[in-house]
TrEMBL record:
InterPro entries: CarboxyPept-like_regulatory (IPR008969), Plug_dom (IPR012910), Plug_dom_sf (IPR037066), TonB-dep_OMP_SusC/RagA (IPR023996), TonB-dep_OMP_SusC/RagA_CS (IPR023997), TonB-dep_rcpt-like (IPR039426)
Top-rank taxon: Bacteria
Compartments, as annotated in UniProt: Cell outer membrane
Stated name of the protein: TonB-dependent receptor plug domain-containing protein
Keywords: Cell outer membrane, Membrane, Signal, Transmembrane, Transmembrane beta strand, Transport
Topology of the protein relative to the lipid bilayer: Multi-pass membrane protein
Database matches in Gene3D superfamilies: TonB-dependent receptor, plug domain (2.170.130.10)
Length: 1072
């Protein structure tokens, strides 16, 4: 009875006191929005110092927090990534609209896109680098990927390891023989098309997934990093808005004289010496009539001429040739200022249930050589909300890309053996095209030709008009998806994408082109009965056609989970996807082609034809080929995170992949790719509330991703190659040998990161360090010699490791009314080979081509070695090496089988180990100026030098010829050997790969500078957001460390081009 009375008393007391207690707590409510745009801001942190209470805004920016303080106003601190911290006093009896001012960090960086989901940065533990549309638009490159190295942290443009072809690397090398390019994802799915077909104006942001925690959800294709491209979309409750932009760019002519080349006078002196020593004797008497330079032809005439007047005429002509430089003709007749124009129109609108946007663009590029590229794009995206739970997305992305060849540039015009003498003439004084004798001697073509043969001379200034190459492609992306919010905390989604790329390439050389005339003439024969000419190859043009198509289907199902309480936040996604890619290609050749009526001729391709000049028997190529390939992938994946009190975060992801590339044996094995991470948001701790640093977060992750090379398969395969030219029956050859253990490469990476920002966001950034290991990498392994085939096979036998760091620092350096912001990107990366079965100690394997894999354990994947150098012999200027501790000329010992890598000088890697960029923006009223420089340090390149054998045979002479040893004492001032005839191949192979020609690649480059003016809204009619920007790209080197004074990115032995020309552009933007 007493117990019942006690319980009744307690119950009545609670009922009586509850209203009083509830009255002591009041809710502080409101909404957080962007001050400039009015957009609602999610995940805004609120902190009440007096009550030590914390809360966050929801996805619509709304917030509510219980306040026990009975005063009329309470102090509140609002903070969000990308915004300046706001401290204010708020009344507790009203709903507030909190306007936050955007800081240096773009608001888009509050969320990061993985291609599977868009997650708040605070919930992530991985390494992301986000580039917003404003930063993307600071540059004017036609290809959007060319804009990344200057603005993205951890990315470098590799110009050396692939022999001159450019390749983006994310955090350096992750493979040896596999594909090095990062995976590119466009709007949630891997992009298989030409990246040049993407319009940069359509892109909202680009996210670089750099570590395993960020990229592992992409599994077997994420080992080289992932670049996620997100297109612009509309937004809810947005009035119809039209945006317009137009850009015109002019590219200056290149500086051809920056390329060091032998002078015409020196070249003629060399040819004179060679003529006197009989170098050309065999060529003069050869039946094949190989082309000789004009100077040599004059020497031949001079040797048989006795008339003083004729000899004087020859001497005068030689003197005239000495004054010529073919680069002047290239600048006068070949190179022109380039022109690029682009315009984009976009529309966007949104209600509370339906949003859409559409854009159309046209871009045309005419480069210095007149090559034309045209791009047209149309993009539209829409989303409709049906009820409160269901939404449906649809997207269309169509692009057309076409190009047409232009004039031949320096290096494309050549005579015999792919060279061109420096005194060649392309036009006479009146600008009329002159002949350059390409394959056959001038006297033969001028005097000994049968009159019925076609003109056999080559006119470079006219020939390109009759030899054209046209490529065109259409890329279509169709995507759709549905998302359904299930009861409680689940969201179910399905996405499908169809991609179709179709390409056509046509190379037409009409009957007026040198190539067609050369082929028709070469296989003509004299009719013994009539004395006339029979053209065995049909008289007419030659058309080479090739087609290619690629079709990809991607289907993904995904279940998202999101459960939040004031203390706990749990997020996860589980899904599966299938993807198939079919590729087809084919080619053919038509002879006797007439473009005007599409007529062509057939003739017997099964019999050999005798060459008119050389007498060799040759079977004419048919140009026929057919190729088909199908790749299929299936994957399951999971990604999840748990956050406790908005301070402590744990993440985990896992993925399993299977493919038809490896067969059932490997696919049945569990070889997961996974990652795990921990994060601690120190700034959300109560003890950190009054610290001047407003945001501080520690992150640590580890995980494994993969890499593959689609060209390698696990089973023995054969490739049919069409009819055999001798038997005219089908035949095939082995394409891959049985390799049952072949599987994905594995890349493991550990990453530690620190994110920081001051309360006023004046200083913010990230500091990250990482270590990665590539295991099961593709490498050369000995093949069973009893197989009777190749000595080596590619297997998963190699390994590499790399370590480095990425630093991003943003500052606001406001000076009075001038807003000055700085962005510094700093990256450090060092890789080394830790396992390579086919390692060789032979010295000659480590010098030569700079894109040769070193394969030496402990050295970088691509390393620079050179022969030890002991200077020049004081007697004759011959190069000296080191043998048994003494200077020697025993070149076979230096370069032969007895020389090992231990005899070489190791310099370092050919990839930059320290690189990054520095950008500054100054803003005053409506004016702003931006400039950005990039830098690369800690690498080496091998520069060009004179190679006498190439000088003799192809006229390819470097300017170092002027610096050669010529008399005793020169050895103290030069490292260029004397010209000694005949050339000793051992000496040449030694000195061209010796120490003096390896240079430091360290340099700083001014990439671009912009000046823009933003008109006040309404200042120009009814236009909004109107602006005009003047941009200058490719401003050149500010600093270079090498002794030769050359541009290391464009003047190495593997990349013999010249620095890119400066581009000037004007951009106009406005909105209605």
């Amino acid at each position: 009875m007493n117990k019942i009375r006690y319980n009744f008393f307690v119950l009545m007391l609670n009922l009586f006191c509850a209203p009083i207690l509830m009255a002591q707590e009041q809710a502080l409510k409101g909404r957080a929005v962007d001050r400039a745009t009015g957009a609602r801001i999610a995940d805004v942190s609120m902190y009440l110092p007096g009550d030590a209470a914390m809360a966050k805004s929801d996805q619509n920016g709304a917030f509510s927090i219980q306040v026990r303080n009975g005063t009329e106003k309470v102090p509140v601190r609002f903070s969000a990534v990308g915004y300046i911290v706001l401290d204010t006093l708020l009344a507790i009896d009203r709903t507030h609209l909190i306007q936050l001012e955007r800081g240096l960090v773009d608001v888009e960086e509050v969320y990061v896109s993985t291609g599977y989901d868009k997650i708040p940065r605070e919930r992530s533990t991985g390494s992301f680098s986000v580039i917003g549309s404003d930063r993307i638009s600071e540059q004017i490159d036609f290809n959007i990927m060319d804009r990344l190295p200057a603005v993205a942290s951890g990315i470098v443009l590799d110009r050396n390891s692939k022999g001159g072809s450019d390749q983006l690397l994310v955090r350096g090398m992750s493979t040896i023989l596999g594909e090095t390019a990062p995976l590119v994802v466009l709007d949630n799915f891997p992009y298989e098309g030409d990246l040049s077909s993407i319009n940069p104006d359509d892109i909202e942001n680009i996210t670089i997934l750099r570590d395993a925690a960020a990229a592992s959800i992409w599994g077997a294709r994420a080992g080289n990093g992932v670049i996620v491209i997100t297109s612009k979309k509309g937004s809810l409750n947005q009035k119809l808005k039209a945006n317009f932009s137009a850009q015109t760019s002019i590219e200056a002519k290149p500086d051809l004289f920056a390329i060091e080349r032998i002078s015409s006078s020196d070249m003629i002196d060399v040819e004179s010496m060679l003529f006197e020593k009989g170098y050309y004797s065999s060529m003069i008497g050869s039946r094949s009539k190989p082309v000789l330079s004009p100077a040599v032809e004059l020497f031949i005439r001079q040797a048989s001429e006795s008339d003083p007047a004729a000899l004087a005429e020859i001497d005068a002509e030689l003197d005239r040739l000495r004054t010529l430089d073919v680069r002047n003709d290239f600048l006068d007749y070949i190179y022109r200022p380039g022109l690029q124009q682009q315009s984009t129109v976009s529309l966007a609108q949104g209600s509370d249930r339906f949003i859409w946007n559409a854009s159309a663009s046209n871009a045309s590029l005419r480069d210095n050589l007149g090559q034309k590229t045209q791009r047209n794009t149309f993009v539209t995206n829409s989303r409709i909300h049906i009820g409160k739970r269901l939404s449906i997305d649809a997207g269309i992305n169509i692009s057309f890309l076409a190009s047409r060849s232009g004039r031949p540039g320096l290096g494309a015009i050549s005579a015999y053996n792919s060279g061109l003498f420096p005194y060649a003439e392309l036009a006479d004084a009146q600008g009329n095209a002159l002949a350059v004798y390409k394959d056959w001697r001038a006297p033969f073509l001028e005097n000994d030709l049968h009159p019925e043969l076609l003109d056999w001379r080559y006119y470079p200034l006219e020939d390109y008009k009759h030899s054209t190459s046209v490529q065109s492609s259409q890329n279509t992306l169709l995507s759709t998806g549905a998302e359904y919010s299930l009861p409680k905390w689940f969201r179910l989604s399905a996405k499908y994408q169809f991609q179709k790329q179709a390409g056509l390439s046509e190379n037409l050389t009409d009957i007026q082109s040198y190539e067609a005339r050369n082929i028709v003439n070469s296989y003509s024969k004299i009719n013994t009965a009539t004395g006339g000419i029979d053209h065995q190859v049909p008289k007419g043009g030659i058309l080479d056609q090739s087609t290619n198509s690629r079709t990809a289907h991607s289907l993904r199902g995904q279940l998202n989970f999101n459960w939040e309480t004031p203390i706990h936040k749990v997020y996860g996604l589980l899904g599966s996807e299938v993807r198939s890619v079919s590729a087809n290609s084919g080619s053919n050749r038509l002879y006797g082609y007439n473009h005007s009526n599409l007529a062509y001729s057939l003739f017997d391709l099964t019999v050999p034809y005798t060459h008119y000049i050389t007498g060799a028997n040759v079977t004419m190529p048919s140009g026929l080929s057919l190729n088909q390939r199908e790749d299929r992938f299936i994957s399951t994946f999971f990604n999840g995170s748990y956050m406790f009190k908005d301070r402590y975060t744990a993440t985990f992801s896992a993925r399993r992949d299977a493919s038809n590339l490896f067969g059932l044996h490997v696919n049945d094995k569990w070889n997961p790719f996974w990652s795990a991470g921990l994060g601690w948001t120190v700034s959300n701790e109560r003890f950190f509330a009054d610290h001047p640093i407003g945001h501080l977060k520690l992150r640590a992750t580890y995980g494994k991703t993969g890499n593959l090379n689609p060209s390698m398969v696990a089973l023995t395969t054969i490739r049919y190659a069409g009819p055999n030219p001798f038997t005219q029956t089908p035949y095939a050859r082995f394409d891959n040998y049985a390799n049952p253990e072949l599987k994905w490469e594995t890349v493991g990476m550990a990453n530690i990161g620190l994110d920081f920002a001051t309360k006023d966001n004046r200083i913010s950034g990230t500091i990250e360090g990482y270590y990665k290991q590539g295991t099961n990498l593709y490498g050369l392994a000995p093949m069973d010699y009893t197989s009777g085939v190749d000595a080596f096979i590619i297997k998963n036998v190699a390994a590499i490791s790399a370590k480095g760091m990425d630093v991003t620092l943003n500052t606001i350096n406001t000076i009075g009314k001038v807003r000055w912001t700085t962005n510094l990107q700093f990256s450090l990366n060092r890789d080394k080979v830790t396992k390579y079965h086919a390692e060789s100690d032979l010295a000659s394997q480590f010098v030569g081509a700079t894109n040769r894999i070193s394969g030496r354990e402990g050295s970088p994947v691509y390393a620079m070695y050179s022969y030890k150098w002991m200077g020049l012999d004081a007697q004759d200027g011959a190069p000296l090496g080191l043998l048994s501790g003494e200077a020697s000329r025993d070149y076979r010992q230096f370069t032969g089988a007895s020389a090992t890598v231990d005899d070489l000088v190791y310099h370092g890697g050919i990839q930059p180990t320290l690189f990054g960029s520095l950008g500054n923006t100054l803003s005053w009223k409506q004016w702003s100026a931006t400039f950005r420089m990039t830098y690369k340090f800690g690498y080496y390149f091998r520069r060009e030098t004179i190679v006498y054998s190439s000088l003799f045979s192809t006229w390819n002479g470097h300017g170092d010829f002027n610096k050669r040893w010529q008399r005793p004492g020169d050895e103290s001032a030069t490292d260029i050997p004397a010209l000694i005839y005949p050339v000793e191949s051992g000496a040449e192979n030694f000195y061209r790969y010796a120490e003096p020609f390896v240079e430091r690649g360290d340099h700083i480059r001014l990439e671009y500078a912009n000046l823009s003016y933003a008109f006040p809204n309404g200042a120009v009619s009814k236009l909004k957001d109107a602006s005009v920007t003047f941009n200058v790209n490719n401003l050149g080197l500010l600093y270079k460390r090498n002794r030769a004074g050359v541009d290391p990115d464009f003047s190495s032995a593997s990349n013999t081009g010249f620095s890119p020309s400066t581009i000037y552009s004007l951009t106009i933007k406005c909105a209605i």
